[in-house]
Amino acid sequence: GDAARAKDEL
Amino acid sequence: MNLFRLFGDLSHLASIFILLHKIRTTRSCRGISFKTQALYVAVFVSRYLDILWEWVSLYNFVMKVFFIASSCFILYLMKMKYRPTHDPSIDTFRVEFLVGPCALLALIFNYKFTFTEVLWSLSIFLESLAILPQLFMLQRTGEAETITTHYLAALGAYRALYIPNWIYRYFSEGVVDPIAVTAGLVQTALYADFFYVYFTTVIQGQKFELPA
């Protein structure tokens, strides 16, 4: 999978 | 949004209300580490200040505002209103030993070398270790009020529930956030000992006491 920051997580 | 994350966030919300309830009903912040609470303010302000330039959802916005405001309010209660009930002599964890290494880690591990992204990384690393002064204090005193242990259990459950959330997201969306996952695993592992004592004593109706 892509490594990215989940912007919707708190 | 999946149920793991929703319940994780709700558990986080619950932990704040339990802590506020504890302070109000006992009119005391005895047993609560000021250093841990101060670290949470740093964590939430550095991570959630993005509400000023980034819109995700109403849920996301409201939660972020709540966590910034409530952590600041708790700090106010501890430093002003219930100041005499806080004993700094047992809150002795050296926070500088956390902040320095976390800052270094954030400079190395981030998704983009920009001010806000490094700040985000810093908040993630700092959050994973922010509970240490509190656990250290618990270790020193060897016991805790039941309500305080409920607070810690809810707080620990929050990040623990994020782990199945990440696994779910990996399979359903194919995305993985290695920085948050690594820090989240560390954060949850730190609670292992606490949870063991919590489930074997408090849940059975006994007082939380650590073996000498």
UniProtKB/TrEMBL annotation, chain B:
Entry's Gene Ontology molecular function annotations: ER retention sequence binding
Membrane topology category: Multi-pass membrane protein
GO cellular component, one term: endoplasmic reticulum membrane
Compartmental location: Endoplasmic reticulum membrane
A Pfam family of this chain: ER_lumen_recept
GO biological process, one term: vesicle-mediated transport
Keyword Transmembrane among UniProt keywords: yes
Main location: endoplasmic reticulum
InterPro entries per record: ER_ret_rcpt (IPR000133)
Residue ranges of the TM segments: 55-77, 97-113, 119-138, 150-167, 179-199
Keyword tags: Endoplasmic reticulum, ER-Golgi transport, Membrane, Protein transport, Receptor, Transmembrane, Transmembrane helix, Transport
Family membership: Belongs to the ERD2 family.
Name of this protein: ER lumen protein-retaining receptor
Native source organism of the sequence: Phanerochaete carnosa (strain HHB-10118-sp)
Classification lineage: Eukaryota, Fungi, Dikarya, Basidiomycota, Agaricomycotina
